[in-house]
Fold this sequence. Notes:
Strand content: 35-45%
Order of helices and strands: EEEHEEEEEH
Low-confidence stretches: none
Helix content: 10-25%
Strand order of the largest sheet: 3-2-1-5-4
Shape: globular
Amino acid sequence: MAVEAEGNYVLLQQRSGSYLLRESISTMAEKLKPYGFVRIHRSVLINSAYVQEIEPCLTGEYALRIRGGKQYTVTRTYKKGLRSLAEFWIGTDSFLAE
């Protein structure tokens, strides 16, 4: 469901439990991209299949909630990752046009 950076490790969070792996978040992003994972923060990847809601914030960032209720902040730097979510959900990225 999500991957979070923890120093020199990443925490892979799944429904069945969490696993700590000695890997960089960038390497995990490349490895998991074909499986629907999107980078939403410098230290967070999420699986697009688990996203339930995306809300814009006044700061230009987004609040993203996944199944299970956990909420993440999508920083402005990584909001381009939301375009792939838009394509997954509605087949277009026009709602995030700059």
